[in-house]
Target: Beta-xylosidase C-terminal Concanavalin A-like domain-containing protein
Amino acid sequence: MTTINPIIPGFAPDPSVTRIGDTFFLVNSTFHLFPGLPIYASKDLVNWTLINTKLEPQDDGTVMLATGGLFAPTIRHDSKSGKTYIINTNVLHPENAGDKPENFIIETDDIWSDNWSDPVYFDFDGIDPSIFWDEDGTAFICGSHGPGPMTTISLFEADLSTGKKLSEEKTVWKGTGGIYPEGPHIYKKDGFYYLLISEGGTFKDHMITVARSENIWGPYEANEKNPILTAAGTDNYVHCTGHCDMFQDKDDQWWGVCLGMRMQGSRFHMGRESFLVTGHWEQGEWPRLDTVEATSSHKFKNEVVKTNKTGLDWLYIRDANLQHHKIEGSTIRLTPSQADISQWKQPVSFVGKRQRRLDGTAAVTLVLPETGSSRAGLVIYKDEHRYTRIYYNSGDKIICFEVVNNGKKISRHDQEEISSESSDIKLLVDYTENQLVFQYEEEEGVTKTLGVVDTAELSNADFVGPVIGVFAVSDEENDEVVFRDFEHEH
Model:
């Protein structure tokens, strides 16, 4: 098999994989963007189809920061019951309180359907839960317990249908000394229980370590050759590799799927993506993983990631008011929100799709509002702290460009007056690995550049990745803003 990397490009962190028959299913984190938990399917680990997404916004009085929301899901199939499970953490931010992790399980009898159960919540003070069934059918949940950098790996027996703990929770491993021991997965092979975890944080010191025990409760002995996967201390193009899940294909070949970041100096605009790595696991031996490499990737493919249903690849910000978003083919109608994308407490009128390619173009035609005062346009969005956009301010009749990265204290703005009496205006962004060029056309074929962004300006230790979309905001109640001919190579 020829490996194509990244297998899920763009905003696709924390991958987990399970195989059902001859098909592999992969799920990612989505953090504060909705719908959550995208599920991809593949028969060859190269060509992937987005088959469904599982969680929609809900109004429950809580909000999510960019580092909140849906963390590190694990997907598992129980061959005995025929059920498929996703276990996950939703990190909320209640008013006047700290982060609040809510852990839950959802299940389905048919992964191809949209018929998933409601979430079953269980008591666990931590993140990154994973499911393991022992040979007698006993179900266990392991996860990263506690806040702060020195978390521990906890284990307990559970009833997956109710979330009830059937045993005491026990700390089974603290890792090898790296910060944030997390993302645990348990595998049983050759009479040993193997515990695979991430350490070192999810960026430049990220690494995968492993321990084993003859008893699921431990004690666990660390592999002398840890870490078995890392790019720390190297100049590898694919960096920050970690958060790995291991699995076998139908020919018993071992693989690992992990997150990584394509880094060119200080530029890593695409964020954390899903990569495939060859694994080796001989009888009685420790698992090994090869170095993660990027390939010439998907330039020969018509689509990087296919979808099998209309609209699956649209993304919204947090608790979006879906009544204010109308999508009909390439036409988008947004009722402007009073809150802008620069904040995290209120709903925002925004919809977009993940940037899947390093090089490409996105464009949309904005029908200029005849009344009211709104700001609407095209944006490359990561979170409330990092975005860049070109938009029309209908109150002042100007075209504006803006780039914001609060982490790097970057805030730039430029603007130009509209010179013609056109009824619409085309907004464009050309993007490469190195830069983003924002342009507009008042007259067809006459393109003006308003802003250029070095992708290093938007590169941070992000949880999320770039989403290209449209937005509309206003300080007053306004009629719908209409966008035509939204084009995005993805």
About this structure: The longest strand covers residues 238-248. Residues 57-65 have pLDDT under 50 and may be disordered.
